[in-house]
Each structure stands twice: as structure tokens, then as C-alpha cells.
Specification:
Layout lengths: L4 H16 L3 E7 L4 E6 L4 E5 L11 H5 L2 E2 L5 E4 L4 E4 H5 L6 H14 L3 H12 L11
Antiparallel strand pairs: 1-2, 2-3, 4-5, 5-6
């Protein structure tokens, strides 16, 4: 697939506008806090727990410490883990694929505890529990 000169120029403009919001100039793993610390060209420092990023939660400290920054500064890459984090998405709180993020949100919702949820669960238990799924046949 050939890329035209016009397409190339538009892509460069998109990248430049993304870089204006901030791009990574350095990144490191903070062992004590179990966090990834990213320094941006704007002087802002962003840190996030490794458990928040898809593919990093169960990694060893040695693997987490090896971080590469893309030439444009818009991506972080862990070569031993084959994990990537897109910096503009990270700044928006997105640390993985849509499917992975949805699973994390669903798991957090399932652990939520409230009086209303507890009351509904007890009421459901008095009725015999959750209805069984019927096989379509």
C-alpha cells in the first residue's frame, strides 16, 4: 500500500497536534510504590499503579523497569512483556483495550457494596436465588 505525499503530511500534522498536549520524555518504574512514572515535555509528571495497565499487573520488577519511549514520545513499550501504552490515552485514563477496560469496570461494579445491593441480594436469596439459565433447544 503506497502512501501519498498528502496523506503523509496529514499524518505528520495529526502527530504534531497530539504531541502538543504532552509527550513522554522519560519513563521509569518506581519499585517502592509499584508505579510507572512518566515525565512529559510540559513538565508534568504522571504516575499510575502497574495494576491499572493491561499486561503489567503480574510482571516482574525487572521486566517493568525496561521501558522504551517511541521516537515521537506518544508510546511506552515494555519489550520483554510486549506491552504498549499510548500516552494520549493514558492521559485520559485509558490503560488498555476496550474489552479489557470493560472487564475491569465490570469487576469493580460486581465488588461494589451498598445497602440497596445487599438488600436486593437478600431478597433474591429468599426467593430461591438467581434464576437458572435455560438452554435454548
Amino acid at each position: 500500500m503506497a502512501v501519498t505525499e498528502d496523506e503523509f503530511e496529514r499524518a505528520e500534522k495529526r502527530m504534531a497536534s497530539l504531541r502538543e498536549a504532552g509527550h513522554a520524555v522519560s519513563a521509569r518504574y518506581d519499585r517502592r510504590a509499584a508505579r510507572i512514572v512518566v515525565n512529559l515535555n510540559t513538565g508534568v509528571q504522571v504516575a499510575f499503579p502497574v495494576r491499572l495497565a493491561e499486561g503489567l499487573a503480574d510482571a516482574s520488577p525487572g521486566d517493568l523497569a525496561e521501558i522504551e519511549i517511541s521516537p515521537a514520545g506518544l508510546g511506552l513499550h515494555w519489550p520483554k512483556l510486549d506491552v504498549d501504552v499510548y500516552v494520549p490515552a493514558m492521559l485520559q485514563g485509558v490503560f488498555g483495550s476496550r474489552q479489557w477496560m470493560a472487564a475491569q469496570l465490570g469487576a469493580a461494579g460486581g465488588r461494589a457494596r451498598s445497602r440497596a445491593k445487599g438488600a436486593a441480594s437478600r431478597e433474591n436469596g429468599r426467593k430461591g436465588g438467581r434464576p437458572r439459565k435455560l438452554a435454548n433447544g
